[in-house]
Amino acid sequence: MCYTKTIVSLGHHGLESLKGEYESTSAIHAIMPDQPIAWGTFKTDKNSHFYICKFYEFTGGLPNPEMFCANLAKLHSHNSPTGKFGFPVVTYNGDIPQNNTWSKSWEAFFEGGFSHVLNIREARAGPSAELDELLQPFFEHVIPRLLRPLETNGNTIRPSLVHGDLWCGNAAIPIKNKQEGIIFDPSSFWGHNEYELGNWRPKRNNFTQKYFDAYHLHIPRSAPKDDYDDRNALYAMRFNLNAATLFPSEEVYLDMVIDEMRRLVQKFPYGYTGHSPRADILARHMNTLAGGQDVEITNTREM
């Protein structure tokens, strides 16, 4: 007997969120088993909408890192059918609609998505002077410095299918198949595979270093590898921004965004410069000669 789970949502955003979850899950399970069953609108209530999928009973804890990361790498090894970054429909992170507009550039796609969520957060929680002060150097210097090298100087990345919201609450171990974990409640798009791992950086999500190590046994870190940790911090910032938008009364999430953004703005004051491995060192040296002061901030994993 196959048990099913039905989710019901209301209104326009309820309809769009269920459509996005159905299309995300369909894309994931075109590669992995168990397709979603259906989504639509009730005939007797045009303002109520449904999504039906297979029901699982779970044990506690997270899946085994080795098997789980092998399957995740398998998912990430499938590339966009259009060759672009994005997704054909809007997907939702909680109640936040994501900007999935197609783009040939990962940098441009990430920038558009980040800006989109910033606007939603401000509409819900109001402006933050501390955050606003950092936004110009963040968009002009940090994002180009960390993402443009992925697609220049002979480097390339292919758009991979990502779950899009892979925190510990969206991965579990089914009782009937304890060897393999499953993932659910996606907010998918075709993006840089390492973006997925940004949600593993905050300690609250319980993905330890073992998961990073197991994942990279299958897919190596993208070049330039020297930027890997700061790229991961940049991607984690997007997930913390989502949390700040979902829970505007909990200031800790916005504080984490601001702290990390300030660190990266201070580390990369000159943005994209070419980009050679010694460019940042040279830029800091020239800044010192000009009388500037560089601030070194030790990076640690967040809550």
What's the layout of helices and strands?
Elements: E1 4-10, H1 11-29, E2 38-42, E3 45-54, E4 58-59, H2 65-76, E5 92-93, E6 96-97, H3 106-125, H4 129-147, E7 160-162, E8 171-174, E9 182-183, E10 189-191, H5 209-216, H6 228-246, H7 251-267, H8 279-289
Antiparallel strand pairs: 1-3, 2-3, 4-8, 5-6, 7-10, 8-9
Helix pairs in contact: 2-5, 3-6, 4-7, 6-7
Please tell me about this protein's structure.
There is one protein chain. The radius of gyration is 20 Å and the shape is globular. It is built from eight helices and ten strands. Strand 2 and strand 3 form a beta hairpin. Helix 4 packs across helix 7 (251-267). The termini are far apart. Helix content is 41%, strand content 13%. Mean pLDDT is 87; it is low at 294-300. It has helices at residues 11-29, 65-76, 106-125, 129-147, 209-216, 228-246, 251-267, 279-289; strands at 4-10, 38-42, 45-54, 58-59, 92-93, 96-97, 160-162, 171-174, 182-183, 189-191. It has 303 residues and is of the alpha+beta class. It has a three-stranded antiparallel beta sheet, with helices on one face. A three-stranded antiparallel beta sheet has the order 4-8-9, with no helix packed on it. It has a two-stranded antiparallel ribbon with strand order 5-6.
